[in-house]
Amino acid sequence: MKKILFATTALALSAGAAAADVSFTGFGRFAYVYDDPDAGDSSTYLEQRLQLDILGTTETDGGLTLGGKFRTRSYDDGDANTTTNNGMNAGQMFVSAGGLKVEVGNVDGALDNMSYIGLGTIGISNFVSPISSFAYSSTGTTVDTGVAAIYSMGAFGAHVSYDSNIDKTDAVLSFTTAGYTFSIGGSDYDDDSEWTKLAASVGGELAGVDFGLGYANNGDAGDFYTAYGQFGIAAGTTIGAYLMYGDQDDNTGVGADIKYDLGGGAALKAGVYNDDDGTFADAGVQFNF
Q1: 20-288 topology per CATH
Q2: Which of 119, 170, 228, 232 is buried most, with the most CB atoms less than 10 Å from its CB?
Q3: What confidence tens digit (pLDDT) does each residue in 130-186 have?
Q4: How far, in Å, CA of 116 to CA of 265, rounded?
Q5: pTM of the prediction?
Q6: 95 CB neighbour count, 10 Å cutoff
Q7: ∠ CA 223-125-195 to the nearest 5 degrees?
Q8: In angstroms, what is the C-alpha Rg of the chain?
Q9: Alpha carbons 187 and 110: distance in angstroms, whole number
Q10: Bridge-partner residues for 201, per DSSP?
Q11: What is the DSSP letter of 219?
């Protein structure tokens, strides 16, 4: 009886494995950081992060793709010199067909995923963006339940996301032509908050420079303007320059970084960023797998 049960279980497992696709991707990074806040003492510490993404998908006889994903991340706590792992984050499930994808759960926020609006990661660990809105949570085990629809057809793209807990909808439309992508987005959330109400961006490549220009109206926090450019200076070596301005506090942020491609998904990176909140600089290595 045990042998029969074992054989049946093995058959079921092998059948499931044949029908489904499970993939593992991720990245690791570690860097030496200098952090000098405007209010407080400067510090140096070792920053590190290791992330694993787990994606499972299956396809119906009618051609629908259904899937779900989790993420687990080990990360540092700044100059506290501690490392944290909260386990798996809140999951996301989705269904897609053709150019349409619908997500439920821990979804990708429309404004948060808008192209060319933010400065991205300067150096290896300093992420800078003017967008203030709900977003996919990489570490949160409890998040607001959301629904998102992402559609693309040729040069046209649309992304709508909804946060059911605060009844907030974000939407972004984009159009790509001649190698440039133009996007505009907004939110229906009308309270007196500092969340992004309206955003616009354009980006692409011009004369060998990858560039992005962005604008975001963040309600009570005022208007933000961003600009960046990245270009190669030698084989495998890229430098970038970054600028962000907030009109409410007349706060100007300026940054620069350099990246050297080691091959195999690995790179050496270093960067520095300064604004009214202080100066942040780092140097280290990142690898993807």
Answers
A1: Porin (2.40.160)
A2: 170
A3: 998 888 888 888 898 999 999 999 999 999 999 998 899 999 999 999 999 999 999
A4: 23
A5: 0.89
A6: 14
A7: 25
A8: 21
A9: 9
A10: 183, 214
A11: G
